C-alpha cells in the first residue's frame, strides 16, 4: 500500500494518546471516543495537569502519528525468528496494526509504531512503559504479550490476536445485550482487573473498545498505553487521562488528591450500563457536557429500556462519586445480580443472535456456571487473588540508566520475552445475600462519610509554606500516616496482631510547650529534647539545641523542601542575631509561665534533631507536624495524642502529664486508652483521621495558605 507524504507534527500532536485497538479491524473502532481520547501529561512531573480535551481542538482534523508508520516488509527476521506480514488490521492515532505469521503459520497482531513519531525521551518512555507493563501481565483474560522488536523504521509489539472483535463491535451490532451475557462478561473483566490490581497496575483506559474476544469468545483486556504502576498502595497518580465517557470523577477533579485503583471500578460501571442500555451513562455530543455530567454523577436509567433492580443497584454503587464508596472486585462479584441466570459460555453467533436463556438455563445450572467462570477467571485462585497491599513485588518500570543507554535502538534487549483468598459460597437465600450487600455498602458509605460528618473541622490558622515541594512532602507524610491508621483498623477487624508482629514501642519527640505569637514574631515551641524553636512568620525556623552551644537555621527550598544550616553560637552570622534574641525571649517566657506537658526525654534512637514543619489550629485541637513524621494533636479538653511510626504507634498524654505509648492496633481493640476512658479516644481518632486527610490534599501554595 502507498503512504501519504510525511508531514511535520508539533509537540502537542506528538504527545497525544492514541486510541489504537490492535487486535480488531479498523471499521470496529469507537470513532466517537477515539476522537476525544486524551492523555494530558505535565512537564517533568506527574502532578500538575489540565485537560486538553476540554478545548475545542477535537473539531479540527489532525494528522495522525500512525501515518508515519511505514508498511513493514513482507518478511521480518529477528533473533532467529521469521515473521511474515499479513493484511492490515487497523490503525489508531499513534500506531498501525498488521497481521503477522511465523514460519509455523501461527498468527499474531503486530502493533507498529513509527520511530519518526518517537521524537522525545518522554514519548520513548511512554512506549517503553506500555511494553514493560503489558509484558508483565500473564492472565487468561488479558491480551497476551508475545514479543517486541524493531527495524530501522518501526517498533513492533507482537500480541495475541483476538479475531472476533471487541465488546464495542458487539454492542454496535446488537444495540444492547441480555443480562446473563453481561454477567458472564463482567465476571471475566473483574478477574482481569483483580489480577492487574494485585500487581499494582491501574489500567486507566478500560472501555468496550479495549476489551476483545478471543477465538472462543472469552474476553481479553488490551491496550496498556495509559496504564500506570503504583510503587505502593498509598501512592496516587495525578495525570488526567482516559476516554471521556469512561473517566472517573476523581481523575477530572482530583488535581490535589490524585486517583488510584478505584478508577477502574468506575469504568466497570460505565461498561455495565452501556452494555445493558446501549450507550454510556454520561453520553453527549459535547465532551465538556460529558465531563460536567461525570463530575455530578448525572445519569438516569431510561424508562423505555428494562433493566433489573439488582443491576441498577450494582451500577449505582459502581458509579459512586466518592471512590471509597465503590465496591472492591470481590464485593462486586458478591452482588445479588450475579445470582441470576448465568450461561456456561458465549456462543459463536453472539454477534448476530440474541440468546434466550430463560428457556435454556435453570438457577441450579446458573450457580454452577457462575462458579466455573469465577474459577477460570482466577477469582477463586489464591495465587491470582492477591490483595494490592500484599507483599507481591510491583512491576519494575524501565529505569533512567536503561534509557540513557539506548542510542540507536528504542527497545532494551531485556524487554522481549524471546531472550482470592476470597472463597466462593453457593448462595441460595437471595434475601440474605441482599442484606450482606447492604451491610457492605453501609460500611463503605460510613467510611467515606466520616469526613462529611465533621464539617466544622476547619483550620483557623497555620504557618505559611512558601515551597510547593514542601507542601507535597507534608501531604505525603499525612497520607502515609493516615493509611497506617487505616491499616491498624483493618488489623483490628481481623482480631489484631500476635505479639511477635506488634510494632516496637518507641516514645516520640513531642512538643511540650508552645506560644503562638504569630501576630508579631512567629510560633515558638519547646520539644521533649529541650530544644527550643521558633517558626518565624517569614517561614524560616531557628532551632536552638539544648545539649550544645549550637543552632540550626532552616529555610524553604524549591527543590529539597527544607534546607538546614548549622552554626555554633559563637560563630553566628550577624543577620541571625535578632532571631536568636527572639528565641531567648521565648525561652525565658516559657520557662517562667508554662509547665512541661510530657515526661519524655531524648532517647538513644533519636539520632536526628527534629523541628516543627507546620502547625494548624482548629476549633477542636492544634495539630503539630514534626520533621520526623510524628503528628501531635493537642485537644481543647487537654487530652493530647501523638501518632508516630507511620501510624503504627499512638502516644497518649493526659491532662496531668502522664505519657505512654502503645501500638495503635491494641488501643483500637480495647476501644479506649487504659485507665483513661474519659479521653474518648475513638471520637478523637476520627478527628485525627480527618485532620490528616485534609492536610494530605493540600499540595499547592495557593491552597496551602490559611490566614
TrEMBL record:
Q: Which GO terms describe its biological process?
A: mitotic spindle organization
Q: Where is this region: Disordered?
A: 32-64
Q: What is its EC number?
A: 2.7.11.21
Residues binding ATP are 115
POLO box domain boundaries: 510-592, 611-697
Q: Where is the Protein kinase domain?
A: 83-338
Which Pfam families does the entry link to? Answer: Pkinase (PF00069), POLO_box (PF00659)
Task: Give the matching PROSITE patterns.
Answer: POLO_BOX (PS50078), PROTEIN_KINASE_ATP (PS00107), PROTEIN_KINASE_DOM (PS50011), PROTEIN_KINASE_ST (PS00108)
Q: Which UniProt keywords apply?
A: ATP-binding, Kinase, Nucleotide-binding, Repeat, Serine/threonine-protein kinase, Transferase
Compositionally biased spans, kind Polar residues: 46-56
Any one GO MF term held by the record is:
ATP binding
Query: What reaction gets catalysed by this protein?
Result: L-threonyl-[protein] + ATP = O-phospho-L-threonyl-[protein] + ADP + H(+)
Q: Which GO terms describe its cellular component?
A: cytoplasm; kinetochore; nucleus; spindle pole; spindle pole body
Which InterPro entries does this UniProt record tie to the protein?
A: Kinase-like_dom_sf, POLO_box_1, POLO_box_2, POLO_box_dom, POLO_box_dom_sf, Prot_kinase_dom, Protein_kinase_ATP_BS, Ser/Thr_kinase_AS
**Which family is this sequence assigned to?**
Belongs to the protein kinase superfamily. Ser/Thr protein kinase family. CDC5/Polo subfamily.
Protein name, entry field: Serine/threonine-protein kinase
Instruction: Identify the species of origin.
Output: Tetrapisispora phaffii (strain ATCC 24235 / CBS 4417 / NBRC 1672 / NRRL Y-8282 / UCD 70-5) (Yeast)
Biological classification of the source: Eukaryota, Fungi, Dikarya, Ascomycota, Saccharomycotina
